[in-house]
């Protein structure tokens, strides 16, 4: 009796291969790889170093914010304000630097502004019990409006004494890799580590799985909720600074509609909008897929007007995948 | 000497009087069945002991010392553990993660401390074995049977050195076979000298595992007696009000 009980308790349920095949992220990853292979064969423009460089750099911005968004979505929340926060951070960074301040002041001010946005979102959601959708929708308007007020809605394209550093940060490379891509990789590794190995990571999954249970077992739910919105805004701020450096100029329509690409990337990468499911790798892979689709349409000479239709289809397929899996589990 | 003593506990929510002057004593190794109709105040009483609500009137004493709980964690620190009506489990996490939720074991690496998976799997496995439940620490709770889910919720109460375990309708939504498992788990707790409060609507369960019966009707305690001195008919009468008091 004791022996068989021991056996039962210690038995492994899944082989690692069947686990892998049950992951949506794995299939999306395969889709990206397949698309890249097909494009390499069908066009002689895809697998060029220049194009690959552009593709990776282009999805880095969405990817960085997708990491922060994943943290929020895992708790069962949503942050619609990231595109506006990115714009606000970019404008503040640009304005501060064009006023003659060094880059660390400009970037510091941009980060401080995005942290403030996240803090307000988080406090209203966690302590006032307001729905994340509504709070961050309001913040989407407010942050963009603040960006317009700050810049008087003018383009900022001169960045003072540290202009070169800023342009290098967003547009330059290190060891042949675009700097935003390096930032993305580092942040993805940190996010992955936090998800798997820290108590904070464990708690955000618990909140997304069953918030009531998390509260009853003593998880500091409110504090964690504030922190996740701060993290999401922080990633938007970082992406904003990098994007100004890449573009070499910033207007107040930067990042418009970006929240939708970011959420699409996260969902395609395997996170569940109901909360409790999501990975850092998925956020990166989801962002990559969207950019590869866009790039392939351009290279194959198909109108880029089709891009949104493809992204939309992938979102629906991703959710369908999830649905089918949970139906199968019920049987 | 009672491990927990409630005296003159009342609780109102606005105009609703959920509990009215309820007193109750729990003994080590004793299982008390708490019965009553829907809305009689059973969950409210448990939540007061668990630190979810503060009583409007009355005192709580543990080992003869008066205590005031502001948060569930304070009750837990005083040796009171709860198995909630809905079990308070996260389906997306493993059994071990649920057992340790809010009390994760960590190991330090310089300035950061990381989750100690090995230690938590091991300890969770030991607890399931102690409870004689075929539950695997690494399995996701969403794939588990009702009985295994109960074992996870109950294993959680065994993490600390709890003296009192409160169970709110643990057998409400599970199959007959699983009910037997839960009743076995309650026997295990009793053997270890833990005071158990079991809320249940199921008369046979209460008569199978409880030593004492407490009946609430509209917030008032109408009976507190040994199970051996009562009968299902009497309890039904007390719950419905056909019998005024016993
Ligand atoms: N948080 C609350 N706010 C207001 N009224 C409550 C609350 N919790 C319980 N009540 C009321 O208190 C009474 C007792 O409820 P409860 O303790 O849940 O009963 P039981 O568990 O015996 O079915 C009911 O009338 C219920 O509506
Ligand atoms: Mg109840």
Order of helices and strands of chain A: HHHHHHHHEEHHHHHHH
Beta-strand percent range of chain B? 25-35%
* CATH architecture tag of chain A: Orthogonal Bundle
What CATH architecture of chain B would you give? 3-Layer(aba) Sandwich
> Helix/strand/pairing class of chain B, anyone?
alpha/beta
CATH fold label of chain B: Rossmann fold
Total discrete domains of chain A: 1
Indicate the low-confidence ranges of chain A by residue numbers: none
Total strand segments of chain B: 12
Radius of gyration of chain B equals 18 Å
CA-based shape of chain B: globular
Give the end-to-end Cα distance of chain A, rounded to a whole number of Å.
30 Å
Number of domains of chain B: 1
Helix content of chain B: 25-40%
CATH class of chain A: Mainly Alpha
How is the topology of this model organized?
The complex is a heterodimer of chains A (331) and B (246).
Chain A: H1 2-10, H2 16-21, H3 24-42, H4 49-74, H5 82-98, H6 103-127, H7 132-151, H8 163-171, E1 173-174, E2 177-178, H9 179-197, H10 199-209, H11 211-216, H12 221-247, H13 258-268, H14 280-299, H15 307-330
Antiparallel strand pairs in A: 1-2
Helix pairs in contact in A: 3-14, 4-9, 4-10, 4-12, 4-13, 4-14, 5-6, 5-7, 5-12, 6-7, 6-12, 8-12, 9-10, 10-12, 13-14, 13-15
Chain B: E1 4-13, E2 16-26, E3 31-35, H1 42-49, E4 57-62, E5 65-67, H2 72-77, E6 80-83, H3 95-99, E7 106-109, E8 112-115, H4 117-130, H5 146-157, E9 164-168, H6 176-191, E10 195-199, H7 203-209, E11 212-217, E12 220-226, H8 232-240
Parallel strand pairs in B: 3-10, 3-11, 6-9, 9-10
Antiparallel strand pairs in B: 1-2, 1-4, 4-5, 7-8, 11-12
Domain ABC transporter (chain B): 4-243
Pfam families (chain B): ABC_tran (PF00005)
InterPro entries (chain B): AAA+_ATPase, ABC_carbohydrate_import_ATPase, ABC_transporter-like_ATP-bd, P-loop_NTPase
């Amino acid at each position: 009796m004791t022996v068989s009980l021991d056996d039962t308790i210690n038995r492994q349920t899944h082989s690692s291969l069947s686990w892998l095949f049950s992951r949506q992220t794995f299939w999306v990853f395969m889709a990206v790889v397949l698309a890249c292979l097909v494009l390499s064969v069908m066009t002689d423009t895809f697998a060029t170093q220049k194009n690959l460089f552009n593709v990776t750099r282009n999805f880095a911005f969405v990817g960085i914010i997708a990491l922060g968004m994943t943290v929020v979505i895992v708790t069962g929340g949503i942050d619609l304000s990231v595109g506006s926060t990115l714009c606000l951070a970019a404008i503040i960074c640009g304005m501060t630097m064009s006023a003659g301040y060094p880059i660390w002041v400009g970037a510091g001010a941009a980060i401080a502004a995005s942290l403030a946005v996240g803090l307000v979102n988080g406090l209203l959601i966690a302590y006032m019990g307001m729905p994340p959708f509504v709070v961050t929708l309001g913040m989407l308007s407010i942050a963009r409006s603040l960006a317009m007020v700050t810049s008087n809605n003018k383009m900022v394209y001169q960045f003072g004494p540290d202009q070169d550093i800023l342009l290098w940060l967003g547009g330059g490379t290190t060891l042949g890799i675009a700097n935003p891509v390096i930032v993305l990789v580092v942040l993805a590794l940190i996010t992955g580590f936090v998800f798997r190995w820290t108590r904070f990571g464990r708690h955000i999954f618990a909140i997304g799985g069953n918030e009531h249970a998390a509260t009853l077992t003593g998880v500091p739910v409110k504090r964690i909720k504030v922190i996740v919105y701060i993290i999401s805004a922080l990633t938007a701020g970082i992406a904003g600074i990098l994007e100004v450096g890449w573009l070499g100029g910033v207007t107040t329509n930067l990042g418009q509609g970006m929240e939708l690409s970011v959420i699409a990337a996260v969902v395609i990468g395997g996170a569940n909008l109901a909360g409790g499911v999501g990975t850092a790798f998925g956020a990166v892979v989801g962002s990559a897929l969207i950019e590869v689709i866009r790039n392939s349409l351009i290279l194959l000479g198909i109108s880029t007007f089709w891009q949104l239709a493809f992204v939309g289809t992938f979102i629906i397929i991703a959710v369908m995948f999830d649905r089918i899996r949970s139906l199968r589990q019920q049987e | 000497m009672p491990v927990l003593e409630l005296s003159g506990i009342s609780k109102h929510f606005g105009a609703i009087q959920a509990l009215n002057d309820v007193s109750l004593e729990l003994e080590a190794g004793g299982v008390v069945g708490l019965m009553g109709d829907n809305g009689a105040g059973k969950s409210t009483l448990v939540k007061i002991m668990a630190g979810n609500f503060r009583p409007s009137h009355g005192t709580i004493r543990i080992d003869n010392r008066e205590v005031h709980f502001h948060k569930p964690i304070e009750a837990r620190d005083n040796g009171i553990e709860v198995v909630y009506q809905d079990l308070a489990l996260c389906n997306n996490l493993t059994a071990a993660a649920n057992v340790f939720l809010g009390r994760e074991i960590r190991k330090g690496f310089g300035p950061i401390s990381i989750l100690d998976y090995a230690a938590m799997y091991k300890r969770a496995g030991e607890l399931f074995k102690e409870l004689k439940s075929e539950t695997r620490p690494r399995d996701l709770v969403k794939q588990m049977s009702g009985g295994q889910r109960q074992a996870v919720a109950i294993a959680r109460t065994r993490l600390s050195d709890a003296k009192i375990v409160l169970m709110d309708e643990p057998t409400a939504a599970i199959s007959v076979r699983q009910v037997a498992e839960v009743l076995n788990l309650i026997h295990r707790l009793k053997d270890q000298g833990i005071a158990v409060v079991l809320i249940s609507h199921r008369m046979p369960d209460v008569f199978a595992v409880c030593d004492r019966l407490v009946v609430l009707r509209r917030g008032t305690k109408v009976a507190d007696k040994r199970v051996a001195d009562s009968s299902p008919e009497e309890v039904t009468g007390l719950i419905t009000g056909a019998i005024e008091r016993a």
